[in-house]
Amino acid sequence: MGTDWFDRVTVAIGVILLHIMLVVGVVQVLSRYVSFPIDLYWTYEVARTTLALLSILAIPFLFKNNADISFLPVLRRITDRTDQLLLARNVLMGFLAVVLVWSAYVAAETSGDTGLPLISWFKVGWGYLFFGVSAAVLFVAVVDDTRRRLGEIRGGL
Amino acid sequence: MAELLLLAAFIGILMVLYGIGVPAAYSLGLTVVGIMMLPIGPELNYIVITQRFWAGMNSWVLLAVPFFLMAGRIMNITGITDDMFNFATELVGPVHGGLAQVNVVVSLIFSGMSGSAVADAAGIGSVEYEAMTTNGYEGDDAVGITGASSIIGPIIPPSIPIVVYAVLAQESIGTLFIAGVVPGLLMALAMAGTVYYLARSGDWPREGSYDISSLLESFVKAVPGLITPLIIVGGILAGIFTATEAALVAVVYAILLGFVYYRSITLSDLFEVSKDTFEDTASIVVIFGFANLYAYWLTLAGIPDLIGDAITGIGAGPAVTMLLLALVLLILGTFMEGTAVLLIMVPMLVPLYPELGIDPVHFGIVMVVTLMYGLITPPFGLILFVLERVTDESLDEVMRSMLPYYLPLALVLLLIILLPDLALALPRAFGLL
After folding, report:
1. How far is CA B368 from the centre of its chain?
2. Which of B114, B192, B392, B403 has its CA at a distance of 20 to 30 angstroms from the CA of residue B170?
3. How many CB atoms lie within 10 A of CB B432?
4. Residues of B in contact with A83 (CB under 8 A)
5. Cβ contacts of B337 on chain A, cutoff 8 Å
6. Among A31, A96, A124, A134, which would you mutate to test the B interface (most chain B Cβ atoms within 10 Å of its Cβ)?
7. Mean pLDDT score across all residues of chain B
8. Alpha helices, DSSP H, located in B257-359
9. B125: pLDDT strictly greater than 80
10. How many distinct helices (H) and strands (E) make up chain B?
């Protein structure tokens, strides 16, 4: 997780998903005024599922780049024990990531063959599994961040 | 008693987690997981975590978030900002404290594009600060109005916090957008009035003199930017498109302006904008996922009923109740990002609206205005930190410089609470209520 190839790939896929949402959404609006040769009832579902997938994809990326909405910018200003607090944060985040992986696995198992309402070939369980994979990558990112912080704290002593 | 303990756990655990730097989204998730493991909490069910998370993000209305963010970012790099700044300078520059008034006017116009107070403060705010300090203004005078005026953005449509509220409260985004217009204009007026008073007493400089031809010329150049909010609001009011579709139209319009009209952006700029939009969108939408889980467990634990009983037990009318809630929101808003507060509070409060006699559209505007005040209120208002970073002022100076604006803004908030028609008259006039 130390190299930036992970970030580049995530951003590239994220940007593609964003533009898929944009194109599908624009087609949806246009279809009200222009007649298209195909049925476009599925566009709502595609756009919102893409938004969910885009957000799940970003979970480890946001953590790795401190881009989540958090108290961190203020915390850094008000205490010089931020690193210690962030180690505690990482322990909790690691625990949550494990719970999320388990939850996603159980949810995917339970959902069976259920498809999305308007695009039935896309199984709901796939979305759940993707969430599980993202949570697993988050766990790796948390471990990596913890190792780095510990190294910095030891190095600073 | 068990419910009271649960309420304390829901709020206490969340605050501690957020306070030690756990991101808002995971603070919500961890709070739920923690409570699920307590003997007092509802029974543990792992499947629900993923199901609720997925359902919370899977929303067509929520698509307005990335597209308004994207439209605002594209507008920012097209050159529209400079044109708007020039127009505002020609319009109000020659009065006392002209550039400070320009600051208010630009924030007002820019708010029709960005929908984010922090984006306003960090983006055009730094431009405004620079222009003022290089034209004879004291740094603290410049930073004060820059920060105060930046919070108009999320009140005037389009507005990301209003989209967030609308999705959570299941209200029409269009109606809430229109409801925000008058309160937003009132805030701008309050700030312009304060600037006028400060400029007279502090002898702030004027900028040039009135020249009708320059004013007209700058107006014509600024027209593409000025009509953006009209396209969005007009389209929604005319029933041509929904708020989500308006956001899509805004992106297409911004792309056309950048590539065809101004010819000022490249594909690589568009990639950078898309990259930032992806990051910002995901950071907001992920919170929606966990907030949906949090709201589900709150309801399961009977927390909204408990809060409802406590509030109705006070026996206060809707206005006093709203004042009390606004106070709580203001305190929360100084510690937490506005979106996060909305995601935590709205699911708790929405079921209580009928019992408390609160109009969801009116209170939505009160909530958003209050949370925006939280952004400029010490000790943890986010905009204070943003301004410290993008200007030459220290955090102490930034905080002090905001002081003159608190009272007028508080008066506006009081007016909005006490006179619901300030928010509701316009939607009613357009048949939206």
Report:
1. 6
2. B114
3. 18
4. none
5. 69
6. A96
7. 87
8. 267-300, 303-314, 318-335, 338-349, 353-356
9. no
10. 23, 0
